[in-house]
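Section 5: illustrative case.
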């Protein structure tokens, strides 16, 4: 299959990871005829908090951070979005400005889909509507878990949990380091703490022999110890 055919929605295996899998071949063809494929460089924004979106972004490759600016000017990362995620759909469906920013953590390939395809198919395709509701319900569940973690777990526990999450979801490179490299500031923004506290905690983990580092790269050496910390054992 050539790149053009592979890039069409009806042939794209990425859609199996999101609500687009509920659409018919004809519906997918109509989306494919009007979508725009975009390359997004590391550090660039797909959209900023407060924007009015006229479409959604389906992630073909790459990773982005979804974050919200707090009242004190700190960025709180609420989710790491990967291949198969559809970004911006809540804002498009509710016709509200975005409450989050989406910034590429590495080079990305996304498909920009005009909003009429989302709204028209919600009106006409019950299975697609159900799939959208399930996706939003899962997002709410994830947000609930984040809130509980922030309230009940220590900074050490949250950083340990973040490291295990990154290793589980992104794997390791040939040297055993977590394949998804986040800055210390990004890790701090995931767990909701200061960068300095994040650095101190990682230093403690290194002294305990639980991790090793090489620049920004982190390798988990003792996953069981991190698990015991997370569970408070």
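Designed sequence:
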């Amino acid at each position: 299959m050539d790149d053009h055919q592979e890039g069409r929605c009806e042939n794209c295996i990425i859609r199996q990871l999101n609500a687009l899998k509920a659409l018919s071949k004809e519906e997918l063809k109509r989306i494919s005829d009007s979508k725009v494929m975009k390359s997004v460089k590391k550090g660039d924004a797909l959209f900023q908090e407060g924007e009015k979106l006229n479409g959604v972004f389906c992630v073909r490759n790459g990773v982005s951070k979804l974050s919200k600016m707090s009242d004190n000017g700190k960025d709180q990362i609420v989710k790491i979005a990967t291949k198969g995620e559809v970004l911006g759909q809540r804002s498009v469906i509710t016709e509200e400005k975005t409450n989050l920013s989406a910034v590429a953590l590495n080079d990305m390939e996304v498909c920009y889909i005009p909003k009429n395809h989302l709204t028209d198919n919600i009106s006409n395709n019950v299975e697609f509507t159900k799939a959208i509701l399930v996706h939003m319900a899962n997002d709410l569940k994830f947000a609930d878990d984040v809130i509980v973690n922030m309230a009940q777990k220590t900074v050490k526990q949250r950083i340990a949990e973040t490291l295990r999450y990154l290793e589980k979801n992104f794997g390791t490179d040939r040297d055993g380091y977590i394949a998804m490299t986040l800055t210390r500031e990004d890790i701090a923004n995931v767990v909701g703490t200061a960068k300095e506290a994040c650095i101190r905690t990682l230093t403690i983990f290194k002294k305990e022999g639980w991790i090793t580092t090489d620049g920004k790269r982190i390798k988990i050496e003792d996953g069981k110890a991190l698990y015991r910390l997370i569970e408070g054992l």
